Amino acid sequence: MAILAFLGPHGTHSEEAAAYINDFCKQDWSLQPYRGIHEAIYAVHNGDADYCFVPIENSIEGSVRITLDTLMDDIDLKINMELIWQVHNQLLLKKGTTAIKKIISHPQALAQCRKYIQKNYSQAEIIEVVSTAHAAKMVADGLPDAAAIASKRSGQIYNLQTADAEIQDISDNVTRFILLGKKQEILHKEKPVKTLLICQIDGSKAGSLCGVLNDFANSDINMTRIESRPARTGLGNYVFFIEIETANVSEEQLRKTLQIVQEKCLWLKNMGYFPIIK
């Protein structure tokens, strides 16, 4: 049975989304929790898992930096699918809690509920942990005067009470997840519509980035997103993450454009062509 790695422990938003994509693709993958996103991605790279399902961007808080930084590494994985997943955050308590002096969760969830926390618990200590479900488990294990921001499923798993529901600052709170594997695969009838390119450009040359962007524009290829992250090779060196639409571009046109772009980069990694599931 194939293994699908996700950010654990049981009860995370990642597990909910992974279970959905398992059913959507009509697969019988064994869902395996990992302590961190980095560990889940490397489980596939090292052959300990067949796929991993990790968050890459949230509509409120933006990019999941650990995902981008890990994809920058010298790993050869492909994106086979993207899922846009509605995220619902709850404030969870252990039965008998009378005061909330600590609020604990994953940094992304805390950021998604920043206004709520400021309005209702401005004096509370904020504690960041590796996942929302880990926060729920810590509260269930007896962390005093604490509440966790986590999923409804976490509350059920760890027998916590819901003090407040749907506490995210914006109701349309969605997270983009990507399904990574060792090779490009067709796992559903949906057609690929996008690709993610990761590249490093010689920043010492004026107009280097502009030249790459013009190549896409001149080929009538729509770029939907660009972001930079430190290359970790020296101050001022950056790696770019570029997402482009591929649905209305011929294979030959795309191949030629990517070849031109690659010649202008120090290195370029194509993460594959994939559909978007909403």
TrEMBL record:
Species the sequence originates in: Pectinatus brassicae
Protein's name according to its UniProt entry: Prephenate dehydratase
Catalytic activity field: prephenate + H(+) = 3-phenylpyruvate + CO2 + H2O
A Pfam family hit: PDT
PROSITE patterns tied to this protein: ACT, PREPHENATE_DEHYDR_2, PREPHENATE_DEHYDR_3
Enzyme class (EC, first level): lyase
Gene3D superfamilies: 3.30.70.260, Periplasmic binding protein-like II
Stretches assigned to the ACT domain: 197-278
One BP annotation, GO: L-phenylalanine biosynthetic process
This protein's GO CC annotations: cytoplasm
Annotated InterPro entries: ACT-like_dom_sf, ACT_dom, Preph_deHydtase, Preph_deHydtase_CS
